[in-house]
Amino acid sequence: MKLATLKDGSRDGRLLLVSRDLRHAVRARAANSMQQAIEHWAEVEPLLQAEYRALNAGEAADAFGFEPQAVAAPLPRAYQFVDASAFLNHGKIMEQAYNLSVKKTPGIPILVQRQGDDFLGPCDDYPFPTVADNCDFEGEVAAILDDVPMGIAAEDAEQHIKLFVLLNDVSMRAHLFRELSMGFGFINAKPATVFGPVAVTPDELGAAWRDGRVQLDMRVSRNGEWFGQPNGREMDFSFGQLISHLAYNRNLGAGTVLATGTFSSPHYREVGSACLAERRAVEMIDHGESRTPFMQYGEVLRFEMLGEDGQSVFGAIEHRMVAAEVTA
């Protein structure tokens, strides 16, 4: 099942069902918003599935053409957004390039609390105050969970994943090391996050959803030029392990968004990267200097994942970087 949120002037938008080929959509009858659906998933999921089957069969009389420009993030705001760093290769490259000493505990995933009140849609312009912030991008996948009980085991946790979403987790690198050294987490380094057009149920991924990982290429381009395509199979921690760690001593409310961190591959020289910082770090290792510039105003980013049938799974994120209108 594929779901999206139509912009309708409200904070939470209007829930849509989107056809498997991403060509058509219909307003959901079983729930008005994504948050409502995820909070009552056991009740509404069978009803949504029936609507989805009718849409794909061409039997939804009120269907209309699906336009990614018309939708917000699938879940426009979240009570909790947590980002991981589940691809350890990314950290290893950064540590090697910049001689960093990072204290890590083997077997313990790195997670950080993020903001959930300012999600952008797949085609929204991305405003930021100044190019001096060193704007970067990070191609990721996130799970949207239903209610998860405290202390859940990793082997039981994945049943609470109801949807997956594609995202660009924007980073402002000029602020990152300063905020890391202060010890509390990210504020200026991690502004709004951009999400792909649709959220999909795990069954839509077919065999690509296995071993607790979304095993598809993260296809990233910058201004129409290939940038990288690392695969989700390279995650060092499964989604079950991430959820279990997050829920160790707390309940997770329905609608929690849990992201992977930037995709990264040990074969980065062949498959590229999903973020600028990693490419710049590789250049530092190879040449003693970083050569690829950070994002400038007017540049366009695109992120997409293709299924085993060659069709787009989540639709594409394609957005332009613009100057923010900052009030003095």
UniProtKB/TrEMBL annotation:
SUPFAM superfamilies: FAH (SSF56529)
Keywords on record: Hydrolase
GO MF term set: hydrolase activity
Record domain Fumarylacetoacetase-like C-terminal: where: 83-320
Domain (Fumarylacetoacetase N-terminal): residue spans on this chain: 1-77
Listed Pfam families: FAA_hydro_N_2, FAA_hydrolase
Protein name: Fumarylacetoacetate hydrolase family protein
